[in-house]
Amino acid sequence: MTSSKPTRLVVVVGMLSEARIVEAENAGVVISGGIASQLAELLENLPLGGIAGIVSFGVCGGLNPSLKSGDLVIESNSKGWLERLQAALPTARSGIVAGGDAMIAGASEKRALRQRLGADAIDMETHQVKAFAERTGTPYAVVRAVSDPAHSALPRAALVGLKPKGETDAFAVVRSLALRPWELPALLRTAREADAALRALRNARDLLGPGLGCPDFVEHLVDVS
Fold first, then answer.
1. How would you write 207-219 as a 3-class SS string?
2. pLDDT band at 131, cuts 50/70/90?
3. Which domains does the chain have, with CATH numbers?
4. pLDDT tops 90 at residue 27
5. Is the dihedral of CA 134, 136, 139, 143 positive or negative?
6. In this structure, how many other beta carbons lie within 10 angstroms of the beta carbon of residue 4?
7. Of 126, 156, 147, 157, which is closest to residue 201 (Cα–Cα)?
8. Among 1, 42, 63, 207, which is most exposed with the fewest C-beta within 10 angstroms?
């Protein structure tokens, strides 16, 4: 028999570098590795008993042109959770984070998505997190930091640099650069943008504390302390 008491938090990320930021937060971390089918299977097989909430956490691409690298975008279907996020992260944008099965690389693609969806940012996990939350009646939150802003296009080398378990595929990046050496300046810019986003995520983790602001999970920590 599974327990209905909310005692655990699920955090969905795309990359190992994001997982390492939250791995000490008493949370079960699910890594998509940028593969939509892999994430769908992981969420489908996730034990449902005792989940206090699910979080989409990590970097994202900016769609709102006012957002720059390192800016945070937050969202939740729980009023109490959103209020906690807003209180802990007062400079974050409360907005809409969209998701897609493929990485959005071009500035023109981002403009089109902004016009069509009205979203502030996009990643490759949040849409599946929201679908899981709706399917299971689970509270969800999104804590995402902009890496590549709306005006910034990703070089091809950045699109091939992820292994299925979320590690950086350095060989694939070098191989791509060997074929397209003119992309080196854009890749270095992308690396700086990603670094700003990861710093923002670490700061957000520190400010939110255990449970990333999830009300039921925080109450559980108080109960057992």
1. HHCHHHHCHHHHH
2. very high
3. 8-217 (3.40.50.1580)
4. no
5. negative
6. 10
7. 147
8. 1
Tokens of 187: 């890749």
3-state SS, residue 39:
helix
The token duo for 168 is: 């950086």
Which amino acid appears at position 168 of this protein?
Answer: T
Positive or negative: CA dihedral 98, 70, 8, 219:
negative
CB 56 within 8 A of CB 126: yes
Angle value at C-alpha 207, between 204 and 209, nearest 5 degrees = 105
How many other CB atoms are found less than 10 A from the CB of residue 17? Answer: 18
Alpha-carbon span 99 to 23, nearest angstrom: 23
Query: Of 143, 148, 145, nearest to 198 (Cα)?
Result: 145
Give the integer Cα–Cα distance in Å for 29 and 113: 29
Burial 158-189 (b: 16+ CB within 10 A, else e): bbebbbeebeeeeeebeebbeeeeebeebbeb
Higher-confidence position of 163 and 145: 145
Rounded to the nearest 10°, the torsion over CA 155, 174, 19, 119 is 10
CB 52 within 8 A of CB 139: yes
Tell me the pTM: 0.89
Instruction: Show the DSSP H helices in 23-106 as ranges.
Output: 36-44, 79-88
Looking up tokens 């060989």, which residue turns up? Answer: 171
- Token pair for 196: 């700003």
Most distant CA pair in the chain, distance: 58
